[in-house]
Amino acid sequence: MSITQNGRGRRLAAALAAAAGVLALTGATAGPAAADRGPKPTVVLEHGAFADASSWNGVIARLRHDGYPVVAAANPLRGPASDAAALRSVIDHIDGPVVLVGHSYGGSVISAAAVGEPRVKALVYVAAYLPAPGESALQLTGQFPGSTLAGALDPAPYPLPDGSTGTDLYIRQGKFRAQFAADVPAEKAALAAATQRPIAQAALTEPAIAAAWQTVPSWDIVTTQDLNIPAAAQRFMAERAHARTTEVAASHSVAVPHPDLVAGVIEKASMS
């Protein structure tokens, strides 16, 4: 009996060795590794005005669960050119390919930051601006009816180094949820209102110098219930950029109530 078992064992070992040789020659592998396309790109998330990096928390959780390295950058919100330079410094510390994601005004920033950067393999715009050279965020918003942002703003002056005065823009806390996050639970929206980051008014009127979406593959999430950037403006910019577009009935703060949808679009872009 033992001789028979040993013989079977030798035959089984020989068969497994032969199979392993075929797999090695063909480059095939077994199990989940067969679908592995190598290391995933790093996803860099750029928030917009009236928010901070924590607005991406739900998206980050989904991406990390799916094996993506993620960086949620702090956007200074001072102007597209200087904010893009700050974002480029973040990209410069990342090895390998990058997918840039911008929400709202963050779209203007990623459009500038990705110019001439070969490591950026895709751009994802989330309820965002995609300005062409010479255009500003304010100009694009004003081209289409539907934004009620102007009536919800709370301007606050601040001193500039040259002795002049600039203006920071907040959304009034009492109007924040209705204006920015209508589909976010009231408690969460109140927390976001209290922690919002202001944007320099000059940042919304500063014209874009370059637009990476003209050469880099782009994806766009259009929010049809948006009171900051009208859906018509978002569609116009997405179509002009030939972006792969997903529409969702959501407020401007779409990443908070719909993190899985946003993360799903980012993952599609990463696999392009």
Chain-wise SSE layout:
Blueprint: H1 2-26, E1 42-46, H2 57-65, E2 70-73, H3 80-91, E3 98-103, H4 106-113, E4 120-126, H5 137-142, E5 153-159, E6 165-171, H6 173-180, H7 186-195, E7 199-200, H8 201-205, E8 218-223, H9 231-240, E9 244-248, H10 259-270
Parallel strand pairs: 1-2, 1-3, 3-4, 4-8, 8-9
Antiparallel strand pairs: 5-6, 6-7
Helix pairs in contact: 2-10, 3-4, 6-7
Characterise this structure.
The protein has 272 residues and is an alpha/beta fold. The protein folds into two domains: 26 residues; 229 residues, 3-Layer(aba) Sandwich (Rossmann fold). It contains ten helices and nine strands. The protein has a six-stranded parallel sheet with strand order 2-1-3-4-8-9, with helices on both faces.
Strand order of the largest sheet: 2-1-3-4-8-9
Put simply, the count of helices is: 10
Number of strands: 9
Shape: globular
Model regions low in confidence, pLDDT < 50 over at least 5 residues: 1-35
CATH class of the largest domain: Alpha Beta
End-to-end distance, in Å? Answer: 57 Å
What distinguishing features does this structure have?
272 residues; alpha/beta; Rossmann fold; 2 domains; 6-stranded parallel beta sheet; 3-stranded antiparallel beta sheet; 9 strands; globular; disordered N terminus
